[in-house]
Amino acid sequence: MNTVCSPYFDPDFHNLPERIHGPAFRVNVDNESLEDCTIVKIDCVNKQSLLLDVVQALTDLNLTISKGYISCDAGCFLDVFHVKNELGFKVTDQRVINYIQQAVSAGKASSPKAVSRGEAQAIEMTGKDRPGLFSEISAALADMGCNIVEAHAWSHNALLACIAYISDQSVDTPIDDHRLHAIEDHLTTVLRATTATEEDSAASHQEVKPAAGLPKGELSSTTRVERRLHQLMLSVRDFDSPTSSRRTSVSIERCIEKGYSIVTIQCKDRRRLMFDTVCTLIDMQYVIFHASVDACRGFAYQEYFVRHADGRAFNTESEKDRVIKCLEAAIERRVCEGVRVELCAYSRVGLLSHITRVLRENGLAVVRADIATQGEKSVNAFYVRDISGNHVDLEFIKSMKREMGAIDLAVMDDDKAIPTPTQWPKFSIGDIFERLSRAIK
What we know:
There is one protein chain. The chain is α+β, with helices and mostly antiparallel strands. It is about 30% helix and about 30% strand. An 8-stranded antiparallel beta sheet has the order 1-2-4-3-13-14-12-11. β7 and β8 form a beta hairpin. α2 packs antiparallel against α8 and α4 packs antiparallel against α10.
């Protein structure tokens, strides 16, 4: 009797049309393949904004990217990331996994993070930095009866960029357009308060206006605000001034055969590093076709194969030099030399002005700030340094608690990035609350 052989059918055959033509996204979170990290894989039809959406979604969750492989050629997008949580372990929280899958699939990494805060108005400021400027801005807003619901400020190469969400006395009271113009004029005057020799050079950097892309009545995700801070710093050309130390190496080569420019970055590893480099390249109108990132023993290596949005590689040495400087600035502007101070107190109008005034009167300058409000509590996270360039004594800062009043205070002297407050309960201000509670025991 002849043996009858049944034809072989691939068990995934019924999915073949879907695998060839769609669906638009396939997101897989794998906790089985590797012992020490979680693999996040995205496979989909390519679109130019997707890479930034993915990196932003992972960054919003404070996940560390230890390795990454990106390919966006031939109309397809394949991304593989090795990620760890804030404690350096696998991502096992199902809420985080669901957020990654939903945020990436929707292509809107920041929308789950946007939270209504009555009628808070986002305004942005750029100007020449000086010791005490952030304190002066806070005092000016308090004098005009503005409540600071949230604020983020970066200082780099003697320039300041700041985004603040403000409301009129209460977070539920809107600021009308006429009053907003008066606030903008007053803040512009504060930014222009420079010496006569600095006035001309500083004038081109000063600007106060409603924040672009940050809607009224809504607090954006941290990464949306940070991307805007990068754009503001880029607009005032903070990359033109040399950095104080060269901890970052950026080089560019030409791949003639494929028509790419190869951007190579080597620097100290830290959280949010890939977000900083990716959003800078994209904001400079470059398209990333392939990339690999690797981090080991505190050192990061990144390689991007890019073309300009018009399809060309880097043609001139001046273009290469500008890209190198902008990437170096994007990496360095987040690295703060100083002491991190975290404070928590009941929110009130003028609280930020009071805290920053005490710091200023004790000879400390704020070089970075992240402020958030949740319920009745206000969390303030600063990097501060001594105005005279002296070493900042941690015990000296702790001694200021009496001047600041009823607050919880923690002081840290390390190289970790500030854990910026966000609006998702798991990743909002709980981390800072926990450290503050330990510090005051």
